[in-house]
Specification:
GO terms for molecular function: hydrolase activity. 42% of the residues lie in helices and 13% in strands. It is α/β, with parallel strands linked by helices and 383 residues long. Strands 1, 2, 3, 4, 5, 6, 7, 8 and 9 form a nine-stranded mixed beta sheet that branches. The radius of gyration is 21 Å and the shape is globular.
Length: 383
């Protein structure tokens, strides 16, 4: 795809946008693995802007730390996901889960002047330790100063203001933005931002940044593409985690229970706003082409190309196959909550952090990227 002598960053600012989806985000690693093989071993990343939400923010931040050597960054991220277990993300033993729920219950029986911790069914402190050990956040600024990275954005949801907040670290010319329901705040990205962005409501506790509590970035996110556009992206590669092929259901569907409703809401949170924002981008591109260049400049309109890639197969059949690999304590909690591995596989697909399931998703992402190689190669070209 590129010669070994062509090691400079691409002329156009290409952004990588990674959406959220819990364990499903392993699919994004497979796509990156395929793309990295199309470049020489020592080559800068084709992306100068990284934007991530929820689990996608973890992937984006890890890759942003290694923009000077794209293949190395992808290799490290792939190794991390391939060796991931549920216990590395949240407490998954009977003792750990009971202790966490006991602390949650006890804290809410205290006097009102004792601030109760944010509620979450699962204790994600293991994820905090993992991120502190595997991500060297100081590399982000080094990549920016070296000119390999233009910007990194991590989006979270502010529970107090109901606004979508994007914490970004990047080049000095990136302006702070403020809209009625979305704002951008210049920050030094760290573990707290990633924990906040990936805190799925009810499942994981909210994370405190400053004086506010933040949760999953997909909540309240009306315009997922906005951070990339605000940072000057001219092309955006979007790796979504909503399968192209919907899951087939029998003619007689069971009445939706708590778990099925939860899975439906999570799918809506992580996917629906993206499709709407893509339609809006398409309209803006048509408008930019229709008006004179001088008018387009006055209106700050510009052509932004977008390529959307999503899984070719649904996740639910994989969840049914690998559900038995999930720790017994987690399966027991799901049973108590009425979550069935066959009927409620959608919600389980977000929490199945086990190697066999994850590696299958990586392989799926790799194969989907190879199937669309010509489109991706053409899109990532700097010309």
């Amino acid at each position: 795809m590129a010669s070994k002598t062509d090691s400079k960053a691409p002329q156009k600012k290409i952004a990588l946008l990674l959406s959220g989806g819990g364990a499903r985000a392993a699919y994004q690693v497979g796509v990156m693995k395929a793309i990295s093989e199309w470049y020489p071993r020592v080559h800068v990343s084709p992306f100068t802007i990284y934007c991530g939400t929820s689990a996608g923010a973890l992937n984006a931040t890890s890759l942003a730390c290694h923009t000077s050597c794209f293949r190395l960054g992808v290799k490290k991220l792939s190794w991390l996901w391939s060796n991931l277990h549920t216990k590395h993300v949240f407490q998954s033993s009977f003792q750990g889960m009971l202790l966490h729920l006991g602390r949650q219950a006890f804290a809410r029986t205290q006097a009102r002047y004792h601030d109760a911790p944010p509620f979450g069914l699962l204790d994600n402190r293991p994820l905090r330790n993992l991120l502190n050990n595997v991500i060297n956040f100081s590399k982000i600024e080094h990549q920016i100063l070296a000119g390999n990275l233009h910007g990194l954005a991590v989006t979270a949801s502010n529970y107090h203001t109901s606004k979508s907040v994007t914490f970004y670290q990047g080049h000095a010319d990136i302006p702070v933005w403020r809209r009625s329901r979305a704002i951008g705040i210049k920050s030094q990205i760290n573990t707290e931002h990633l924990l906040a962005s990936s805190a799925i409501p009810i499942v994981f506790p909210a994370s405190k940044i400053g004086h506010s509590f933040y949760g999953d970035g997909s909540v309240h996110q009306i315009a997922p593409l906005r951070p990339a556009l605000k940072m000057g992206a001219e092309k955006v590669l979007i790796i979504d985690l909503a399968p192209q092929a919907p899951t087939t259901h029998s003619s007689i569907a069971p009445a939706p229970g708590l778990a099925m409703l939860g899975g439906h809401l999570m799918d809506a949170i992580f996917a629906d706003t993206l499709s709407a924002d893509l339609e809006h981008l398409d309209r803006m591109n048509n408008l930019a082409l229709a008006v004179d260049k001088s008018k387009a400049d006055n209106l700050a309109l510009r052509q932004v190309d977008a390529l959307h890639l999503s899984p070719s197969s649904p996740f639910e059949p994989l969840v049914e196959r690998y559900y038995c690999h999930m720790p017994l304590a987690v399966r027991s909690l799901m049973r108590i909550l009425g979550i069935s591995p066959s009927e409620d596989a959608a919600i389980t697909s977000y929490l199945l952090f086990e190697p066999k399931y994850i590696n299958h998703l990586i392989d799926m992402g790799y194969q989907d990227a190879q199937n669309r190689r010509s489109d991706l190669v053409s899109f990532l070209s700097s010309e």
